[in-house]
Amino acid sequence: MNMKTVKIAGQTVPAIGIGTWHMGDDPAQRAAEIAAIQAGITAGARVIDTAEMYGSGRAESLVGEALQSLDRDQLFLISKVLPENASKRRMEASLDASLQRLRTDHVDLYLYHWRGSVPLAETVAELQRLQRTGKIRSWGVSNFDIADLQELWALPGGDQAVANEDLYHLGSRGLDYAVLPWQADHNLPLIAYSPVAQGDSWGQHLATNATVKRIAVAHDVTVYQVLLAWAIRNPQTLAIPQTSSVAHMTQNIAAGELTLTPTELAALDQQFPRPTKKEALDII
């Protein structure tokens, strides 16, 4: 079996990476969380997604510690800047603090975490400038809806964004109506956060759905591996599930080798239909 890949910022990476939201908060979990991140890389993941917001920097510090024994050149590291720091005056200092916590001299992708009061043109201009310094290799956006993406593309340099990170899973398919078709037309990959819906109201519903369970049995995999395989069925999608368990992390990465059949995808579409009209962007 072959692991699915996605091309972001000119690099081809496995389509399942490692999310770190909620990690780094509990000192008692630190060793287990570091072991899980390292297990994910050993299993074949290359992408680690974090943000200055996660635990007010604690997730970045955790990632920095976890990656010390690994080859930085083989990793694709993503972090994000908060809206209040996404200005010409504050962004570089915010980035420098992230780099210090991450124990690296650059991030491979720096995302504008969500929109705030700073004019989008100013944020884009500063992201472009920081890319020229080498501290970030590429930049993108997060929690952008279709109107945000269209506005971004109309700005000078806006079409240099290399990814948009949004909430996306089988139980939250609003992106399928307009955002994903637009991104496909503009060759802009999606980074899907919370791709198995853990921690939101859909989670238990998805994991106990009879169709999902039947497909899992047919492939001898877990229901969460089915959900991940569904999320990356599009070759322009990178999923970043989070887990503090070595066993679950290994299963997550292995889901990149699972291909659902057209019949199975149709059955999931019937259970969880794609939207027929524009929906509000889901954010958690």
Automatic annotation (TrEMBL):
Q: Where is the NADP-dependent oxidoreductase domain?
A: 15-270
Q: Where does substrate bind?
A: H113
Q: Where is this site: Lowers pKa of active site Tyr?
A: K80
Q: Which InterPro entries match?
A: AKR (IPR020471), NAD(P)_OxRdtase_dom_sf (IPR036812), NADP_OxRdtase_dom (IPR023210)
Pfam family for this entry, one = Aldo_ket_red
State the active site.
Y54 (proton donor)
**Gene Ontology MF terms in the entry:** oxidoreductase activity
Protein's name according to its UniProt entry: Aldo keto reductase
